[in-house]
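Re: your question from the hallway

Yes, I did run it. Sequences:
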Amino acid sequence: MATKTNKAIKISQKHLLGIQDLSINDVNLILDEAKTFIKLNQSKNKRLNILSGKTQINLFFEPSTRTQSSFELAGKRLGADVMSMNMANSAVKKGETLIDTAMTLNAMHPDIIVIRHQDSGACNLLSQKVNCAVLNAGDGSREHPTQALLDALTIINRKKKIEGLRVAICGDITHSRVARSNIYLLNMLGAEVNIIAPSNLMPKEIEKFGVNKFTDMKKGLKDCDIVMMLRLQNERMTSSFLSSNREYYEYYGLTPDKLSHAKEDALIMHPGPMNRGIEIDTKLADDINRSVIKEQVELGVAVRMACLKIFCE
Amino acid sequence: MKKQYFINANIIDPHNSINENGGLIIGEDGLIEAIGKKVNTNNIPSREKIIDLKNKHIFPGLVDMRVFAGEPGYEYKENFRTLSNAALAGGVTSVVTMPNTDPIIDNVSIVDFLKRRGRDKSKINVFPSAALTKNIEGTSMTEFGLLQGRGIIGFTDGIKTIQNTRLMLRIMNSAKDLGTLIMQHAEDYDLSKNGMINSGIIATKLGLSGIPAVAERIIIERDLTLLENIKCRYHISLISAAKSVDIIKERKDKVKFTTGVSINNLSLNENDIGDFRTFLKLSPPLRTEEDRMALVQGLKDETIDVIVSDHKPEDEEQKRLTFAQAATGASGIETLLPLSLELYHNGSVKLETIIKALTSNPAKILKINKGNLSVGNEADFCIVDIDKPWIVKKDKLISKSKNTSIEDKKLQGKVINTFVKGEELFKL
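Structure:
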């Protein structure tokens, strides 16, 4: 768990490609740094000059609302020159490969590139070809490290700790990079992780990640402190994974009844965007006593500021 | 050509059950005149030039049943000239080329072109296969009879699988009537859809869709079931999973068929993919170490008949992409024998069994008089120092494409000379 005693340690990685590559000290370093930005983001003057003169390029090959705006805002608040490229209109459409795009951008001497790509491992490939730091804003179904870090920060903010908590991650695990990054991070920080999904959305050999597997949501939610719901990624589903959204909601949608199996003070999280009425009851999503979904978004900016600052150095 | 005398070599010729120290005499016509322990200094005229092959092996020229040549259409990846140079460096003197070219080898006129190009540009024996279905679309079968008449050795959709069971049944019926060899790439597409690597922990970690082993098994079981009633010449091109070995073993008593395996699946496993090494994106995919060990065992007990290189040259541009976008396949004809020898050096499989799977077994399946050192046959053979250590470096490879699956691997055993029809065409 995050403590302030390890502050002097430098980050071990040049790039932020995944939680898998980080040590516990790296995580603490990022979370501690992020905490310092929470207050700033709530104050009137939100501008710092820490990254003044630095260039940040956001390369988003996949549509994104919150992650892209979060990274953009984070960079701007730290004083960086931020360029967000809409890859839908780029040379990629004309057949340029990722490596050529990378070489082109590299020639412009950016200090940091934030990449979101539909293919797993795209950020790894990019990082081999550019001189600057690469931050992964989501690659295929592999990792989404800043999401896991902001989730961890949200949990710590509310529960003061992660160690010893029982966290349920529920929904489309197969297609979820958020689930993978969260499993790595929560395991690292000492939480017990329950994975809940129908077999068709449960990745192969996930139990080898050191998690408990459940196909029965009520059993999986038992005594959980945190309930993390995932979005059904219909755009990644190529054939019938589920019979219907209606049935999915019946068995895996988060409802007050199912939530009652978790601890009384269990928090609800969701990385967004939400499919209301499919994976989560709309009232629960907005329940200010249980849902910390908005807080996740808020702390997301702080976490990304921390990552930009640390990896730019 | 002058008469050539070799003595004192360790000769392994599984077809003739030769595994002894002896000599080889090649006549002026490039045919084998004599072979074995009876060929020694005592019965060679002393004025002749004799080459002493002490500590060297002589194997029949390898017969590689699964090779992708770039011609026609992908000459920038590999042409017949570069392919034969690469093959010769690996002791391979006969290849079966896959029909997955542009255009696809699926009609008589293109076969004539191919035969001509193969003859003019290639130094090795090229046996072209043709597509099972037109344009490898898996819908209507090609003219097996006419194509065979023009010299097609066997039929396969190469990288593709016949999904439609009724079509497969009809293909088998025609193959039975015409004595045609069918080679199936076993993969159920509904199960392997979007899959890139073995389905399992590595796929889950890397966030890549998996190809389950059962996708291979279902096609094998389907085809072998059809084969019970339709006795045609049927060969499973490649297997990758332990379960496939079990099924083949179990069915071998009931029906007659043969099985191949890629040297990649015998030597590597899914862990080698590491951090998205696209050079190891293969079809069938590399599977677990248990699967690999089962394949090695299958080779050892001769459940598996043939080792192939599955040589699939791809230019670097096609591999310098994300794993999802990268081309499938590895270049491997030059390293087929040295990599196979690893199984001998580490004590897994007898040398003779390995050589059999690389020479006489494929020749027997193809019904060609190759892969042996019988007296009177064309002298296609290689001289090998099976202990010579070396390191694979892609820049040193002769193939036009450098997409080796074993870059920087330390190997033991190198081909010193390769002969085709008695002529030395490769010398280290």
